[in-house]
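hey so u asked for the seq, here:
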Amino acid sequence: MSHAPIDSGSAGVSTVAGERNMTSIVIISIIATLGGFLFGFDSGVINGTIDGLTQSFKADPGVIGTAVASILAGCAVGAFAAGTLADKFGRRGVLIIAAVLFIVSAWGAGIANNAPEFIIYRLIGGLAIGAASIICPAYISELVPAEYRGKLSSIQQIAIISGLTAAFLSNYYLASTADYSVCAGANIAQEACKEYLHNEGIKGSTMPLWMEFAAWRWMFWVGVIPAAVFLVALLVIPESPRFLVASGKKDKALAVLTKLYGAKTAERTVADIYNSLAHDHKPRFSDLIDKTKNRVRPIIWVGIGLAVLQQFVGINVVFYYGAVLWQAAGFSESDALAINIGSGVASIGACFITFFLVDKVGRKPLLLVGSIGMTITLALVVYAFMGAPLDDKGHLVLSDSMGLTALIAANLYVIFFNMSWGPIVWIMLGEMFPNQIRGTGLAVAGFAQWAANYLITWSFPILLASSLGLAGAYSIYALFSLFSLFFVVWWVRETKGLELEQMEG
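ran it, structure tokens below
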């Protein structure tokens, strides 16, 4: 079926700019990305709680690694199930379920009294994160015009990093408040407090705070607030028109699109969506097989590759274990938490680079720049850590120059990731699959993404405690960054400016 040109000049369904209700489109996109904010917050909050969990549960590194990575097992299941559930109950319906699970997880993780109980609540949170991670960008992609789809979808990554940064800020504030309470009780002057705590090995996250609950518990409970806001906000946004058409609810889809784009564009878009679907059955996993060649569609393998490599470059080691990493490199807990905040702020700035460029230069060029930048900066981190001696507590002893090199390189790595592989992969996963297989394609790619995330997160404490150490772990991530460059060159196709109905499988 032929498509008239978009008013901006890119290929796709014709829309009349004057008829668009861009205010509503942007508001709906922002509400959807609250799921990304919670994704980031729930992922990052663990960063400042490791010491509290270790002390409260009297757990060894293996148990802590399992506790931290447990959320990712839930994410893998949540992502895999969400694609199918979204094809059955709708994109918004799945997000509402995810919002409820976010609330349950945040409260439960804070009240947990042992590792198994904590893991159960984090698994519940993982189900919510997994669902939100793939449904939020898909929902946005299915509602916004092609020429703005990359820009508005990139808000998802900004929301994720904002959630991470909010968790870092919250953790820092709560731990610092507990720190000063300890110092006040011991009649230690505030300016001498940090040195006293460091020398005594006292961690604020393990200290009692309000109502005599340890600070690490409050770090989780803060997450109830944004989760409740997300749940209420979801009740006022519409269902995805592409889901409505696929479910035989063309009239409802027409009503949603008319409100957002005007009557003429709405009618044409509904017709294009309808013609892009198979009408003898609803979307199902068997659609992922190319019947003519009896093999998995190539686009599925590309989606899996993007999803897995996004994790194998090691980004979530920085976000989940940032405090542990910097303490291992000789920084205090307070300084490590502050570094996390700086990394989060830098990440948000990097995401805005993507926001302004993704619909101009395209997805593929940004991925290539990110792969090159991540490879170089990770190599510099390895260089800084390699050969550094250990003190009597097992912490690296970096010279001033090497400490500065590691700090700058690690933050530049985070910036390169968040201007490329961070947002672009989510954008592409939400748009690259044809309508008929978007839900199932996302389910498979989402499962692969979170399975890879679990493997990287679970393995880091083991690598850290092994003879490989920090340098060895980051060498592995650098090699995957290098491979990601060739993967993009050989297998990734540009999707800039294409309507969802034009995506090929």
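Residues 1-18 have pLDDT under 50 and may be disordered. Strands lie at 289-290, 295-296.
lmk if thats what u needed
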